[in-house]
Amino acid sequence: MSDLYGVIHSRRDVRAEFTGGDIAPGVLEKVLNAAHAAPSVGMSQPWDFILIRDRALRETFHAHVRDERAVFAAGLTGAEAERFARIKIDGVLESTLSVVVTYDPSRGGPAVLGRHAIADAGLYSVCLAIQNLWLAATAEDLGVGWVSFYREPFVADLLNIPPGIRPVAWLCLGPVSHLQEVPDLERHGWRSRAPLVDALHHDRW
């Protein structure tokens, strides 16, 4: 089990280290199978994976990300603005491909066992699939970067995603030169990782 813990603690949100190299088809299939093996509420498996290699699609999305970065940056001032200016927020064009993970709330319905009291349980299931993909990719010496500077309707329109299905994550995937020992946001002074003790409670909050 020590290898598992090593993968968990070496996993990084990759931005600048993608090489653009090829991913062996068998390796990509292993990573996607790991994602598809994630637990899901009511065995609904409410995810789909859109593999995006088309350069024009990625360039269009990248331009949208750049615009959203500017929107966020406009709300920052002083030292915070200076720190953010140094942070690279995506590897959309540098990575080998993108994987968009979606959520279909109708999958497994109309009665999804285990979701009647917690409506978001299906969304949580998709996040588990994303985590599986991320850890499997790390184990295969690949990098993953989760892009969060986008508007869901824009991505849904760009990729012809059917109504009612949410694009939960745009992931950049591919070989990397290396994985940083310290996460980017810590290295750039944006935020430091809090110790476990700060988040630990017993019996009550």
> What is the CATH C-level name?
Alpha Beta
Strand portion? 5-15%
Order of strands across the main sheet = 1-2-4-3
CATH architectural category = 3-Layer(aba) Sandwich
State the separation between the terminal residues, measured CA to CA. Answer: 31 Å
- Indicate the mean pLDDT: 94
Topology at a glance:
Layout: H1 2-10, H2 25-36, E1 47-52, H3 55-73, H4 78-85, E2 97-103, H5 121-139, E3 142-147, H6 152-158, E4 166-175, H7 184-187
Antiparallel strand pairs: 1-2, 2-4, 3-4
Helix pairs in contact: 1-5, 2-5
In summary, what is this structure?
The chain has 205 residues and is an alpha+beta fold.
Question: How would you describe this structure to a colleague?
Answer:
This protein has 205 residues and is of the alpha+beta class. The chain has a single domain, classed as NADH Oxidase, CATH 3.40.109. Helices cover 38% and strands 14% of the residues. It has helices spanning 2-10, 25-36, 55-73, 78-85, 121-139, 152-158, 184-187, and strands at 47-52, 97-103, 142-147, 166-175. The protein has a four-stranded antiparallel β-sheet with strand order 1-2-4-3, with helices on both faces. The mean pLDDT is 94.
List keywords for this structure.
205 residues, alpha+beta, NADH Oxidase, four-stranded antiparallel β-sheet, 7 helices, 4 strands
